[in-house]
Amino acid sequence: MRRAGRQGNPNTVRRLVPAMLVAIACQGASGADDVVDPRIQTASVFDGVHLQWFKDQEQAWKDDPNRAVVQGPYIITGTGQVAQASVRLPVAPDDRSTGIKGIIRVEPVPSEDGSGTPGDPWTRLGSIVVLDDMGQPVELIRFVTGFGGTSTYEADLTAFAPLLSGERTFRATLSSFSQPGWKLWFELVYYPDTAGARRPHMVQALFMEPEIEAGSGLIRKRVRIPRGLSRPRIRLISTGHGSQKGDEFISRTHVLRVDGQEVLRFRPWSEHGAGVRGLNPWSGRLIIDGREIWASDFDRSGWAPGLMVQPLVAPMPELGPGTHVIELEILGLQAPPPGAPGNFWSVSACILADQPWPAPRGSDLQDALESP
Predict the structure, then answer these.
(1) Among candidates 99, 196, 109, 188, which has minimal Cα distance to 145?
(2) Domain spanning 15-25+35-196: which superfamily?
(3) What does DSSP say about strands 99-108 and 344-354: parallel, antiparallel, or unpaired?
(4) pLDDT digit string (tens) for 277-306?
(5) How far apart are CA 128 and CA 154, in angstroms?
(6) The CATH number, out of the four listed (3.30.300.30, 3.40.50.300, 2.60.120.230, 3.30.450.20), of the domain defined by the range 199-274+294-372
């Protein structure tokens, strides 16, 4: 936003408005219908794909890790919990000016007994990843279903523009252990001239660890950063899961290091209270001291039932050109008591960077924008 009293080119200001605000032109004083920008493009990746747990076929899937079934245009793996799709996306503009939004919708499939209840009334961890040019998965969105409720998740994916054009392969995962499970939709929407000051240029896969348990809390990777980049940063998603007394409700300290130097220390945590009850119609409920408490009310390790997981994005000036070793250590991981569900953390991370702007003569870009 420009400071009061400054004059600027209104076209420039308009281009800086977030994508969701410029997608539809405001209704005019004449009362005419809303006009949709004809340049907006939408790409459907998953259209109601059915994800569930093939319990009766579990041994066959274990015996053959490459086992897959075809569901229309999708390939289903992972005992029915993973869907893969290859799609052709819009061509990226040379000026890297397009904003991109990802939209997911999940809804439980009704129980087959005709009762109208959801076939899976529990919270389930879900994810959308895209494969990079080397076939490495990069997580775009992580979410958790509500207790038997329908949810919609929206995310700004502009920074991933280098991986969201042309022919791409996506995977959707939903960790349902029920039948008939859930249906999932995912689409990408491309909004011209809404990237603002960003010029997305590089996305490099870093970590993809679905289950980090006690004894394996340190992960490490060597990366190479090319020259000619600006604004290097790490985007990290970490959520804790486990039993009632486990890491679903007990956060753990995460330590990020670059070349042996600690650059970040944090504990993933999410507090939403009763604000998510509308997304959790089948949540357990209990009266305590005269107050009704829902299972969805409780704070958790980086996630909430029915919501998208918010990634942590940290600037990393330490990632200059050359080779670096990046480590993430989760401190204090403990094995669960005998007979209790396993404790684990699900972690993904990638490196993002932009193409530098050509600086105005005699000053850098930000100084030029801030000058009166």
Answers:
(1) 109
(2) Peptide-N-glycosidase F, N-terminal domain (2.60.120.1570)
(3) unpaired
(4) 999 999 999 999 999 999 999 999 999 999
(5) 12
(6) 2.60.120.230
CA distance 97 to 161: 10
Q: Can you read off the two tokens belonging to residue 268? A: 């993933």
Which one, of 242, 171, 151, 163, lies nearest residue 200 by Cα? Answer: 163
Is the pTM of the predicted complex or chain greater than 0.90?
no
Q: What is the mean pLDDT of each run of 10 residues along the chain (372 residues)?
A: 35 33 35 70 97 85 85 93 96 85 97 87 97 97 97 97 96 93 97 92 97 92 96 97 85 97 98 95 96 96 97 98 98 83 92 88 62 54
Decide: 300 and 241 in contact? Cβ < 8 Å. Answer: no
* Dihedral angle sign, alpha carbons of residues 243, 249, 252, 256: positive
- Burial code (b: 16+ CB inside 10 Å, e: under 16) for 259-283 equals eeeebbeeebebebeeebbebbbbb
Question: Which residue spans within the chain are E strands per DSSP?
Answer: 41-51, 69-71, 74-77, 82-89, 99-108, 125-131, 137-144, 151-156, 166-174, 182-191, 200-212, 218-225, 230-241, 254-258, 261-266, 285-288, 291-294, 312-315, 322-330, 344-354
The alpha carbon dihedral of 140, 102, 155, 85 has a sign of negative
Q: Which of 309, 211, 297 is nearest to 249 (CA)?
A: 297
| Domain segments of the chain as ranges | 15-25+35-196, 199-274+294-372
Amino acid occupying residue 78: G
Tell me the C-alpha distance between 278 and 285, whole Å.
14
Structure tokens at 39: 């340049």
Centre a 10 Å sphere on the Cβ of residue 187 and count the other Cβ atoms it contains.
15
What is the spatial order of strands in the sheet that 137-144 belongs to? 69-71, 74-77, 82-89, 166-174, 125-131, 137-144
